[in-house]
Amino acid sequence: MDIRPEAVPGADAVEVFARVRGRLFGIAYRMLGSVTEAEDLLQDVWIKWQGYDRSTVAEPAAFLATVTTRLAINALQSARVRRETYIGPWLPEPVDTSADPYLGAERGEALSLAVLLLLEKLTPTERAAYVLREAFDYPYPQIAEIVQVGEAAARQLVSRARKHLASQRRTPVSPADQRRLLTAFVAAARDGDLAALEQLFAADVVSYADGGGAARASRIPVVGAATVARYVHAFAARFWSGVEIGWGEANGRPAALLGRDGRLFAVVTIDASADGIGQIQWMMNPAKLRSRP
Amino acid sequence: MSAYAGFAAACAAADPSAFEAVLAGDAVLVCDHGGRRPLPLAPARGRAVVARVLADLLTDLRTGPAAEPPTETTATAETIGSAKTTGSAETTGSAETVATVEAVNGRPGVVLRQTGHAVGVAGLSVHNGQVTGVLLVLNPDKLHRWHRPEHPPRTGNLAGMADVEPSAPSTARMIDYWLGGTDHFPVDVAAAHAFEGAYGPCAEIFRSLRSYLGRTVAYAFDQGVRDFLVFGAGIPSHGNVHEVVPAAHVLYTDADPEIVAQGAALVAGSDLVHYVRADATDPGLLTDGTAAAHLPGWGSRPVGLVFLGLAAFLTDDQLRSTLDMLYAGVPEGSLLIVDFDGTELTAYPQALAMMGDGFHMRDPRDFGALLGRWRPGPEGVVPVARWRPEGDPEAVPDAFWGCVAVR
Q1: Which of B37, B39, B254, B385 is the most buried (most CB within 10 A)?
Q2: Domains and CATH numbers, chain B
Q3: Residue B12: helix, strand or coil by DSSP?
Q4: For B200-222, what is each residue's pLDDT tens digit?
Q5: B1 in contact with A, Cβ within 8 Å
Q6: ipTM above 0.85, yes or no
């Protein structure tokens, strides 16, 4: 990791830690499947951070994520030894994601009980690479550095983990169907048509909004067909007024580009399977929209 | 009914045929009970087997040890299914199991509670409208974060409240929900969740706003104010005015008759505190004797006017003229406690759209002009968390701004 001799005054140890705590918890919980163990681990990270010569740390967020991941790899090894004597099946400790927005945030990936259970079948290092990639979108070179392998090996870890989990994934629909569902969704959303919206959704659909407001925690994901339909309905009338809709692509998926007065203000994408629309992403973060033409 | 709601209803009924109706033929059930229940250690497979195991388990839960009182004070979610799991309602020691669909690890899941005490949390896999997998956590060590305070019964104890739930959400009750109160309905919780989906968590922001109310009202009391007139008061609990200054006279007002009925029931029996209906933009109660009847110092000594959560719903003209009427109606030395919405919400187009057409955000630099003859105190117009903070101001977005102004 990048290390510079100056920078980062000591006094803001608390502030820096508090700012990234949500993400650190997200990593630790996905690694351990236990809120209690994740919180204990964060306590250890905090103690290390407090005692560390922070003037040598150029990027505190990256540094803390690295410490957390490496400690979690060790903690998972000993947790697994303990779980060998657990009576009956072991399941992760469930979390209320409507009360803890940080967990559901970022992408909400690698979080459902079913996926956390499958992650138990991976080696701790595979699991770490997968979590950093799928849930937090870390670039491969950074993952490689955190789990202390070469970049090629990091890619290998993630792809092996994906294969393990592939059986759990639903078959995605064809790009043409994806586009058709997106068009139908935008039309129903615009009309605020509750029944039409619910019909398009898989029962466990999740809607994620990435807004602006730089300092804010992430939006709470909205979960479930009826709730997401109500949610989309709740802002339909005013949100869509004066909106020009264009069609394009984002992250390899068809996207609806929403503009007002000639200015792009939102990009809407969906993930769909044979069950219907499973995820909706509303990208409205000006910083991330700026890179688009 | 969705597979999730159907599963919740089957849990509440402890009915094998109800389970069979929502389960897929090859459904699998895995239970984590940490050895504390006489349940199979291997996963149960197949619709009939899973349905029977679940129905037996749910029937069993009611005869378990009495639930401990819940310890946490977080919010509740919408109740989907609720029924006695026992065949005989008179059976002593039986506990009602309430099953609700909530966000479990970012997906819909079902939470089982008895008098607010979580006894199980299930993650469900659903394909083609059927439940194919149930991961059921019963180990109490993994459930303590799911306990919730149980709501008191809605009817019969709040005078003036209808037997039926309100059909539309109210901002006052949504705020009550965010403040951790119990005076709200599922329709309010749903609206609060929808707003948070577009904006982000709101509880801390409203707690910060409530603590601004606390600091400003306590400050006014320290300045000698003993009579408070509160506009748009909402639910009078969770640090509302009379709880901050219990020795003062407080007249709460609100324009929403439902809220007035609810509020009046809550403060009934107090000699110092009253709740009446009034529209903040038409402060006839200043002159028609209502204020004088409930506030003994009215007209003879400075009063405190609490004007929170209202400016955002008034146009500049309405706000200017209302504040001016209030100025004219109170003695010199009276204090005005006011807030307004800054422009922070513009960054959240969906949330902004939910606020409707009558919602007005204001640039803090323009607000002073709307105060007219009222003179802002030395703190000026600041984000509410930074008005005379006690210790470090709360780390919340600058959604609300405010000031205390003097006549």
Answers
A1: B254
A2: 3-146 (3.10.450), 203-406 (3.40.50.150)
A3: helix
A4: 889 999 999 999 999 999 999 99
A5: no
A6: no
